[in-house]
Structures are given as C-alpha cells and as structure tokens.
Specification:
The complex is a heterotrimer of chains A (234), B (307) and C (308).
Chain A (H helix, E strand, L loop, with lengths): L2 H21 L2 H20 L5 H33 L3 H5 L6 H29 L7 H24 L4 H17 L10 H8 L10 H25 L3
Helix pairs in contact in A: 1-5, 2-3, 2-5, 3-5, 3-6, 3-7, 5-6, 6-7, 6-8, 6-9, 7-8, 8-9
Chain B lengths: L3 E10 L2 E11 L3 E5 L6 H9 L6 E6 L14 E4 L11 H11 L6 H11 L15 H13 L5 E5 L7 H16 L3 E6 L2 H7 L2 E6 L2 E7 H9 L3 E7 L2 H9 L4 E7 L2 E6 L2 H15 L3 E5 L5 H9 L5
Parallel strand pairs in B: 3-7, 3-8, 5-6, 6-7
Antiparallel strand pairs in B: 1-2, 1-4, 8-9, 10-12, 10-13, 11-12
Helix pairs in contact in B: 2-3, 2-4, 3-4, 8-9
Chain C lengths: L35 H15 L3 H26 L7 H29 L4 H8 L1 H7 L4 H20 L1 H12 L4 H7 L2 H26 L3 H25 L9 H12 L13 H29 L6
Helix pairs in contact in C: 1-6, 2-3, 2-6, 2-7, 3-6, 3-7, 3-9, 3-11, 4-9, 6-9, 6-12, 7-9, 9-10, 9-11, 9-12, 11-12
C-alpha cells in the first residue's frame, strides 16, 4: 500500500472521528473539565499570594486535566470502536489495521493539546500571572501526546474499561511514581512534564531528558498498542 | 477459478469451537449459508471478510488471505450481522466514508448516493442513522457493502428484524446484484429466506459443514422420510380411523391425549386431517409437526434420533 | 354468545375449539412488590463480582491497606515494651493507624467507583435495561433503592469492612481491660465513619452516572469532579476558608474521622471543621440521590432505553 493511500485512509478515519466528536458531548464535557483550572486560578488571584506559588499550583491542576483528557478522548474513542464492533466496518475495508490507531490519534491529539494549552493560557489570564512560558506549553503538549499514546494502548488491551483503566494508570501509577525520590520516577510521564516545564525547579532540570523520557515511555506503549491492534479480531 | 477456498479451516474461541474443519469452494453466484444460531456462519463469513484468522487451515479469497492481504479486501463487500454503527452520521456520510475507505477516492459521494439508491434509501440519505428503523439500518448496511462495487458480497443475516414488505424488497435487490454478476454469500437461519434468494445452499451446524448443494435436493432428502404430525384431541382413535386407510400414511402411534401420524405426503395429510376433524366434531387442543423446522433438517443430516 | 347482540347476528359457533395450548398461569407464591429492590440489589452485587478485576481490584487494595495498617499496629504493640522512652511513639502509632488509614480506604473506594458505580445508570440507559425494568411492575423507587443498596453493599466491603477490622484489632492490642473499656467507643466511631464513607462513595458516583446518558462521559465527569475539583477545593482550603476543603470528598471523610478520634490535623492540612465536613457529605449524598431519583423517574416516563 502506497504512502499516499495510507495517508488518505488515516485522514478519512481522522475526519470520521472528528465528525463524531463534534456531534457528541465529549467536547462539552472536556471543555468543562478544562475550565476547572481557570476557575481555580481566578479564585487564587483574589488571594494575596505570590505569583510563583499560584503558577505552581495551577500548573499542578493542568497536569490533573492531562490525566483525564486522554482517557476521555483517546481511550474512550478507541475502546468504544472495538467494544461496539464498529471496527468490523473498518477492518473489512482494504485498510491497514494501524490506520485506525493513527487516524484516531491524528484527530484527537491536536484537540487534547489545544485544550490543555488553552486552559493553561486562560488560567494565566484569569489568575493574572505572567503568560505561560514556551517550555510549560511544550511540556503540556508532550505530556498530552505521551498520555494519549498510553491511553491508546490501554484501549487496545482492555477496550471495555479503557477510560477507567487509563485514569487508574494515571492516579495509581504515573502520578505517585512521579513524586518518588528515586530513579523510578523516570517511568512517570508526569515527572518528565514537570521537568520540561520551568514552573518547578527540579534538581536535574533538563528539557532534553524530559523529552527523551516522554518519547521513550510513549513509544513503548505505542508499540504495545500497534502489536495488539494487529492481532485483534473483530 | 474459485472465488473463495476454505481448506480444512477451524476456529477456536477459547474452549469453544466456532468452525470445525470446513473445506469448501465457492465458485460464484448467490449462495445461502444456512444454520441455526451459533452454527458458525458468522465466523466463516468473518474469516472470508478478513476480520478473523482461522485457528487452523486457511481461507483464501481470490487466492489471497483476506486477513493479511489488504488489497484483496478491495474486492470484498461485507455487511455485518450486528446493528451497531456510527449513529451520529447521516446515511450518506456513512456510506461515503465506507466507500472512501474501500478505495473509491474520487466520486465517493456519488458512489454512495448510487448505492443508497440501489437499496431504496435515497429518501433518507440525509437523515442520521440514529433515527433509523431496523429495516432502514439493514438497507444502509447493504449500501455500505456495495458502494465500492465489490466482486464478492458477504451479507451476514441481512433480513434479521426486517418487516415482511421490506424483506421482499431487500431480497429482490440482492437477487438483482447477483444477476449483475456479483458473487454473493448470504447467511440466515431461516430456510424460506434463503429459498427466496437462491437454490444453492451450504448447511452448517456446530461449526461443521453438513451439506452443500441445491436446496430442493436437501429438502427432498427430508421428504423421502415420513413426515410426522402430532395431534392432541379428545378422540384420537376417531382421527386414526379416518386416516388409517390412506396410502400416504406410513405409521400411526397413539400417545397420551393424542396421536402421532407419519405420512409421506404431508400436504394431503393435513387436508384430510382437517376434513376428519370437521366431519366428526373432534375437539383439537394442539396440532404440530416436529419435522417442520430447520431442526428436522439437521436431525436428518446429523443422523440424530429415530432416523 | 355476545351480550347485546341479536340472535341472528351472533358470530357463528365454532365447530372445533383449541382450548388448552399448554399455557398456565403461575399459581405459586409471589414475592411482595415491595421486595423488588432486593432483586435489583442482588443482581447489582453479582454483576460487579463477576469479573476477576473490576471490583476485586478495589477490594484487593482495601485488603492490602488493612493488612499493612493491621500489621503496623500489631508490630508496634509487640515491640512497645522493649522500646523504652520511644514507647510513646509506638502508642501513638497504634492510636493513629486507623484514622490515618481512612484516606487509603477512600482511594480504594474511588477505584471501586471508577469500575462499578460511576457507570451504573448510564450503562442501563445505553443498554436499554430500563425497558426490561419498567416493562414490569417495577417502580422507579425500587430501582433507585435496589441500585443504592447493592452499591452500598459493595462499597462497604471496601471502605467499611477494613476500618472495622482495624478497629477490632485496636481493641485486641489493648494492654489492659481498663484500656479496652476506655477505647471501646472507637467501634461506634468507626461505624459512623464507615457509614458516611460508604454512602458517599456509593451515592455520589451513582448520581454522576445518572447525569449523562453516555457511560463514558459520566465516568469522565465523575473522575474530573473527584480528582480535579476535589483537589482544587482542597487547595483552596489552604488559601481561603478551610471549610471549602470539605468539598473534597476524601478529605471530608478524613476530617470527620480526625474529629471523632480527636486527632490533630497535620501542619500543612487545612483544619476542616466537623460541621463543614458533615454538611458537605450530607449535601453530596442527598443531592446525588435526588439526581438519581429524578433522572430515573424521567427516563421511566419517557420510555427511554435501547434501540427501537
């Protein structure tokens, strides 16, 4: 199959995903979720607090938003497709199996990244602190991408409970691991997000390490997802 | 050249055997895949559509494995049994997307419109699938299968849940597709639905292929053996006396509250039975035939029971 | 003969009648209609228990928490006498293990809510189960009560049973009968905390599951409310009034526990007043049950559920 036709198929699946998303309620739910840190920043701004601690607190909540959005969009979308067996329509067509994953991610990743960054920007306005740095925006974007790939893989493994398991992964694995005072924290995407963003000063502050960490973890999960989807039977 | 070749293919779902050692060659035309629920029809069709792999053996369509060969699926159109689809889309959008994914790059909307017209769904093509009735969903599914003009159509229970009027219409449209030169495999668990479409059937039961060939041949095999009719009434001996002298009656067995008649000509027997009931004023509490169903076909084919 | 119709207009008398098709009315004993909720509750419990990980994962977490807390208590009690001046710290550990462990049971409760409670009603609506329930003489209150009781039974295993066992263990490690009598009130205190936590972790996610007809959206909303809104409320409790932190469910449960067990809040934690914590939990539970009752009643009247 040529690259052009693979791209065309991926684009078609992405359009299909976007159309369904726009006509559903997920966008509204996610907008409500993304608005929470904005409200929080506004309340904090009414208190007499130094900007630095406000920025740190609000960014921490943006990370929590990152915990939920990939679950709501990616895990839910892929899991629903597999569980409802609408993949029979897709895989009975001459499309490579990975195209489903690629198409979904192509459609949903930009939305997750835009929502996270927009929420962060809006929170900075509401909280009346300095506009977010490029590093912090990059951190949210990369975190969104990384966690989306994790969510995609989990959805291929356990489609029925993809969202719940993705949230559990974040809550019981990634977040706690990220605050551990040991090298095991390198397995946490949240930790690398904090490293890349310059809102928190961490001893080994390194954008390159953070990007590499997220890339590695995401790649492993993505490979798991690809392997699983190639073997899945509709 | 055979369109579909299944060679000793089996499919396991954990401990459950879905398809068991099926070898079959499909050369063309319309073929009915007949079997009760859980017989393995859908599994076999999914293997042909490239959705699942056989656990053992092979299934080839146009000489290629449809699971691994992406290109051969361009020549296959599959309409699944389940109803679930993307309800947020309109019928036209759904069929257009399916056409695009099947490789109709230019004019996919035109192809979709044509397909919807072929299945009689033009009037509803701009409506969302969410509000469709069962019959409309079945037609839309059929449209998704034919939009890219495939050579092989795999229709898994296309008449399930469809009202009688729509059923006649869909059967007619499928027949026309067959006349247009497409190879069509239609699965069903209802004999008369398949009979309306084709005379070539494959009978599948408990994952095994029991028979293939002309439906009349298979039916005659049933009719060669006596047909049983059971009547529960207040005067079974009266009924028995009225029919005992008839040449088509092979055996009469008295049971509690009724009588079992074995006949070689069920149509005549029913007529004479009705006449006897009316003439003698017999009060009939139940009337039925243990043979007048698909189970009887399989009972014969599997050699179970009294035969 | 049909009454009110002239003889010559009567329908022809049938010459043969089929009068017994084998269908018989059920003549055995029937359950009282008021017990229907029990059937729903039992079904809820057996369904949640089915898979190997959904509910059992949360239960496992609760068992682990209970084992660790109990183990720590037993260990401290065992070594207390040999610790000399550090006996005080051992005694403190014994006394604070139960209240400190509540937050971990709450986490297990959240895990149970993710996998079971938060999608119950949305799943029933999506799957068309309402058609089955309300095609029978099931009333909305049977359904709501049944679901609530079923979920409470499940959640109680996670957030109630564990603390109760630890409380009993605490009684068991008392040095003297006098001490045992003194600390006996921890049982009713634990019961009170257990009941509140059970209701909170059963009713509130159930309320979210009734808010949206799509189970995934309902789950996302619940997770966002619990994780993000809750954390925000807790953070605001630091900078504004500590009562705001009571909106965070686990902290509210923890605050009730700390007040009942006369424990001091840690330096950084906002000191949530008991009244605020109780008010928050009560309002959460009441509003959630109200939402469930309203949505179920509305769905039953509009005949919602499943594809046509």
């Amino acid at each position: 199959m040529s690259a052009a036709s693979s791209l065309s198929i991926t684009w078609t699946i992405a359009s299909l995903t976007l159309t369904r998303l726009v006509r559903g309620r997920a966008l509204w739910v996610s907008a409500m979720i993304a608005a929470l840190p904005i409200a929080f920043a506004y309340v904090l701004s009414t208190r007499d607090r130094p900007d630095d601690s406000t920025i740190v607190d609000v960014f921490a909540f943006e990370q929590l938003v990152l915990a939920v959005l990939p679950a709501l969009f990616v895990a839910s979308s892929i899991g629903e497709e597999i569980e409802d067996r609408t993949t029979t329509y897709l895989w009975s067509r001459p499309i490579p199996r990975w195209a489903v994953l690629a198409g979904k991610l192509l459609a949903l990743l930009p939305i997750i990244c835009v929502l996270s960054v927009a929420s962060w920007f809006a929170a900075s306005i509401a909280g009346a602190f300095a506009p977010p740095s490029a590093a912090s925006c990059l951190a949210l974007v990369l975190g969104g991408v990384g966690l989306s790939l994790v969510a995609a893989a989990i959805a291929t493994l356990v489609p029925k409970y993809a969202m719940a398991l993705t949230i559990c992964y974040m809550l019981f694995f990634d977040l706690p691991l990220g605050v551990m005072p040991a090298s095991i924290k390198q397995l946490s995407i949240t930790h690398h997000v904090r490293m890349i963003a310059d809102v928190v000063s961490i001893a080994e502050d390194s954008v390159a390490t953070g990007v590499t960490g997220i890339a590695t973890i995401s790649l492993v999960w993505f490979v798991v997802g690809l392997w699983r989807i190639r073997r899945l039977e509709a | 050249m055979s369109v579909v070749v299944a060679d000793k293919c089996s499919k396991w779902y954990g401990d459950v055997l879905g398809v068991s050692d099926v070898s079959w060659r499909l050369r063309g035309g319309i073929v009915g895949l007949l079997g009760p629920n859980g017989a393995g029809k859908s599994s076999l069709m999914k293997m042909m559509a490239g959705l699942i792999r056989p656990s053992r053996g092979s299934v080839a369509v146009f000489g290629k494995c449809p699971f691994s060969d992406v290109e051969v699926r361009r020549r296959i159109g599959y309409a699944p049994e389940h109803e679930k689809t993307w309800d947020e889309l309109t019928a036209l959008e759904l069929v257009t997307v399916m056409a695009k994914l099947a490789g109709v790059s230019k004019g996919s909307a035109v192809a979709a419109e044509r397909a919807l017209d072929q299945v009689g769904m033009t009037f509803a093509m701009h409506r969302r699938v969410k509000g469709f009735s069962k019959g409309m969903r079945q037609r839309t599914k059929l449209a998704t299968a034919i939009a890219h003009d495939p050579e092989v159509l795999l229709l898994d229970e296309p008449l399930t849940g469809v009202d009688p009027v729509a059923r006649v219409d869909i059967v007619d449209r499928i027949r026309k597709l067959g006349e247009a030169g497409k190879t069509i495999v239609v699965s069903s668990h209802v004999l008369y639905e398949i009979e309306a479409l084709t005379s070539e059937i494959v009978v599948i039961h408990r994952g095994q292929m029991l028979a293939e060939g002309n439906v009349y041949e298979i039916r005659r095999l049933i009719d060669r053996y006596p047909h049983r009719i059971r009547i529960e009434c207040d005067r079974p001996r009266t009924i028995a006396a009225a029919l005992a002298e008839q040449d088509h009656v092979a055996r009469i067995v008295f049971e509690r509250n009724g009588v079992l008649i074995e006949t070689r000509d069920p149509d005549r027997c029913y007529d004479q039975l009705a006449a006897a009931v009316l003439e003698h004023g017999v009060a009939v509490s139940s009337l039925g035939s243990p043979d007048n169903n698909l189970g009887a076909v399989f009972e014969y084919l599997t050699g179970d029971g009294r035969r | 003969m049909k009454p009110g119709i002239a003889d010559d207009e009567q329908p022809p008398k049938p010459t043969g009648t089929i009068h017994d098709l084998g269908y018989k009315r059920y003549i055995g004993t029937r359950r009282a209609a008021s017990t229907r909720w029990r059937v729903i509750a039992r079904q809820q419990i057996s369904f949640a228990w089915k898979t190997w990980w959904r509910f059992k994962a949360a239960l496992g977490l609760a068992v682990i928490t209970m084992s660790i807390a109990g183990g720590m208590m037993m260990f401290a009690s065992d070594r207390k006498s040999s610790l000399g001046r550090a006996q005080f710290f051992a005694q403190r550990l014994i006394d604070t293990t139960l209240p400190e462990s509540i937050i971990w049971f709450c986490r297990a409760g959240f895990l149970a809510s993710l996998t079971i409670s938060a999608t119950v009603i949305a799943s029933d609506i999506q799957g068309g189960a309402f058609t089955f329930y309300f095609a029978r003489s099931t009333r909305p209150w049977h359904y709501v009560l049944g679901k609530l009781v079923g979920l409470c039974a499940l959640v109680a295993l996670v957030v109630f049973a564990g603390p109760l066992v630890i409380a009993c263990l605490r009684l068991g490690v008392s040095d003297t009968t006098e001490q045992l009598r003194e600390i006996l009130p921890i049982i009713p205190k634990t019961l009170a905390v257990g009941v509140l936590a059970t209701l909170a972790y059963a009713a509130v996610p159930l309320g979210f599951s009734a808010l949206l007809p799509n189970r995934r959206h309902a789950l996302a909303l619940w997770a966002a409310y619990y994780l993000i809104f809750g954390a925000m409320a807790y953070a605001l409790g630091h900078v504004a009034s500590p009562s705001i932190a009571a909106l965070d469910l686990p902290r509210a449960v923890q605050a009730v526990t700390f007040h009942l067990f006369d424990l001091e809040f840690r330096g950084n934690d906002p000191e949530i007043p008991l009244a605020a914590a109780l008010a928050s939990l009560s309002i959460h539970i009441t509003v959630s049950i109200g939402i469930v009752a309203y949505q179920v009643s509305r769905a039953q009247k509009s005949g919602v559920g499943g594809a046509s």
